[in-house]
Amino acid sequence: MRIAFIPARGGSKRIPRKNIRDFHGQPIIAYSIQSAQQCGLFDKVIVSTDDTEIADIARQYGAEVPYMRPAQLADDHSTIGDVMNEFVIWLDQQAWPVTEMCLIFPTAPLLRSTDLIAGHALMQGAQWRYVIAATEYVFPIQRSFLLNEVGGMQMLHPEHFRTRSQDLPTTYHDAALFCWANIQTWRDNAPGFTADSTIHPIPHYRVIDLDTEDDWRRAELMYKVLKEFDGE
């Protein structure tokens, strides 16, 4: 059995009710559910939530919510790892014959079903521990800097002050879209971002982490442009 797992708590702070806020005509979580359904890989699409409204909306769009998440795993200090670990324990208690599971983020309207398919193929082909959707930093992080308490600049990597951008290695960051692994990896709570994990690359124009109202507006514009010019 292969499962898509979408964690969606109710208490988002910076964008209230973020996981079910309207995004171009439907709750944003619907896009993650639909991408999972459309890729044809999953026997079940599961939403984990502590919120009855999110649960009702998830079911309306065809996902399953087999139980409500306990409140202690839905506060500001709970991690994705905590939630995944609790779910895997529940799976083992139910004796579901799960072999592979993909964590899909609930605010991923630019995710495509083809991304999920490609990520799964990578995991199958080389037996990577994790396959994570990621993208390149748009500017070399080795040239980044901080501002001190009076506004002065301080490079994080001063040794690269005179290094040309083209001579610096490419760096990546998590795209906040999905992560594939087999069930034993999730069960072991194995660390990610290691040499036995890899990425499915996502282009910059389809990556945005929705944390602020500015992020949300940019995501809406990006989605609209892709729909109008790419027919996607």
The CATH topology assignment is: Spore Coat Polysaccharide Biosynthesis Protein SpsA, Chain A
* Number of distinct helices: 6
Query: Ends: how far apart?
Result: 29 Å
Query: Main beta sheet, described?
Result: 6 strands, mixed
What is the radius of gyration? 19 Å
CATH level 4 superfamily: Spore Coat Polysaccharide Biosynthesis Protein SpsA, Chain A
Structure write-up:
The chain is of the alpha/beta class and 232 residues long. It has a single domain, classed as Spore Coat Polysaccharide Biosynthesis Protein SpsA, Chain A (Alpha-Beta Complex). The protein is built from six helices and ten strands; from the N terminus they run βββαβααβαββββαβα. It has helices at residues 29-39, 52-60, 80-94, 113-126, 183-188, 213-230, and strands spanning 2-7, 22-23, 26-27, 44-48, 100-104, 131-136, 145-147, 153-155, 172-182, 198-201. A six-stranded mixed sheet has the order 4-1-5-9-6-10, sandwiched between helices. The chain has a two-stranded antiparallel ribbon with strand order 2-3. It has a two-stranded antiparallel ribbon with strand order 7-8. A hairpin with a 5-residue loop joins strand 7 and strand 8. Helix 1 packs across helix 4 (113-126). The longest helix is centred in the last third of the chain and has 18 residues, at 213-230. The two termini are 29 Å apart. The model has no long low-confidence stretch (mean pLDDT 93).
